[in-house]
Design brief:
Elements: E1 4-9, H1 17-29, E2 33-38, H2 46-51, E3 54-55, E4 68-71, H3 78-87, E5 91-95, H4 103-110, H5 112-131, E6 134-137, H6 140-149, E7 157-159, H7 172-178, E8 181-185, H8 194-206, E9 212-218, H9 230-233, E10 239-243, H10 249-257, E11 259-264, H11 274-280, E12 285-287, H12 293-296, E13 303-305, H13 311-323, H14 325-339, H15 346-352
Parallel strand pairs: 1-2, 1-4, 2-3, 4-5, 5-6, 6-7, 8-9, 8-11, 9-10, 11-12, 12-13
Helix pairs in contact: 3-5, 4-5, 8-13, 11-14
Amino acid sequence: MSGRALLVSLRCNPAHIQLLIAYARAIQTLGMEAVFLLDPAYSRFSELGNAAPVLEPGKARLDSGWDCAIFFNPSLKNLETAKSLKKHGTRILYILHEPWQMSAKYIKAEGLRAAGRAILAHRSTVPVLRVAHHIILPSQYGLRVYQSTDARYNRSASCIPLLYDDDLRDDISTLIQKKRYFSYIGNPCRSHGFDQFLNVVRLSLQRNLDIQFLIASGGHALPKGCLSDPIFTQNSHRIDIQSGRRLSNDEINGYYSQSICVWNVYRRSTQSGVLPKAFMFGAPVLCSEVGSFPEFVTSGRNGQIVPGAEPECIITAFQQFQKEIASFATQCRRDFIDTFYYRAHLRTLYDLLPHAAHTHAGNCT
C-alpha cells in the first residue's frame, strides 16, 4: 500500500452510496487502502462493507496515519472530524454537490421549506470549505457557481463528474431487447418536475399512444392524490409504480435497463445522479436547460433538451428514442464510460492525492 484514504459520510444519504463505492474503487485502483467512515445508519447497506472496511464515528482513531480524507456530503459533524484529521497531517478533499445559489432559486423551484434546508446545509458547509485543502465540484456548471459564490472560502477547486462503477452485465444487444418504459426514477418532487411528468402521462393516455410508463420512487412516497384523475385509474395497467419501499441497487439497475428513456426535466439541478445511471444502462434522457444538463446532454445524440417541458415536444422526442433506441443506447453507453466511469478520472484524482501516495502512477489508466 502506498497510503490510506478515509472516505467520510457522517449523514446517511442513500443517493451517495454508489458514489462512495466508486471512489473506493478508484482509490484502491491507485494503490491506496480505502476505508469508509460512515454514519451508523448506513449499516443496512451491505454493499458498502463489500467494497471497503467500514468504521463508525467515535470508534475510529483519526491520528493513525490517514494520508487523505474525502468528505461526501454536509453534516454538522464534518468540521470537528476534518479539523482533527488535518491536525495530524491528513489532506482534506470535500465533494461539494450544491454550491450556494441565491435563496430565490431554491424558493422558486422547491418552496420555502427546501430553501430553509439549503440555507442550513450551506451554513454547516462553509467552515469545512475553509478547512479543506481542495474542493471537488461534480460539473463545470457547479464549478462556475462555486467560483461566483463560495470561492471566497477556498479558491482551490476543480471538477470531477459524479463517478460510478459500471454495473451493466449485459451486452448492448441484450440490453436493447429489454427496453420498454418511459421512466421517472427518483424523488417525485416539484423541483424534479414530477407534476410535469404526469402531464405527459395524461396526454399519452388521452391519445392512447403506445407508451408504457414507470414511476420508481423507491422510499419516496408519491404526492397525495397525484394519481386520482380517472385517466390514471382507468389505465393503471400502463403505469408501473414502484413506490413506498427502499429499492435495492439491483432493482434500480433493472428499471434503468428497461428504460427507453429517463425523465430529467428538472426545474432546478446542479448535477443529476439519475443522468449517469441512465447512460450506464443505455437510456437517453429528456432534460431541461437548467444546471449541468447542457454540459452532458446533446440533443439527438444521447438525449433531448426540452425547454418549457411541453408535453407535445416530450412525446415526440420519446417516439424518436423508440425508433432509434439501438443508436441512442450505444452512444449513451460510450458517454457513460468516457464521462462517469471512475476509471476515466483516475489521473485527475491521482493529482489531488498527497504526494506520499504517488507511487502507483502506472495504475492511472
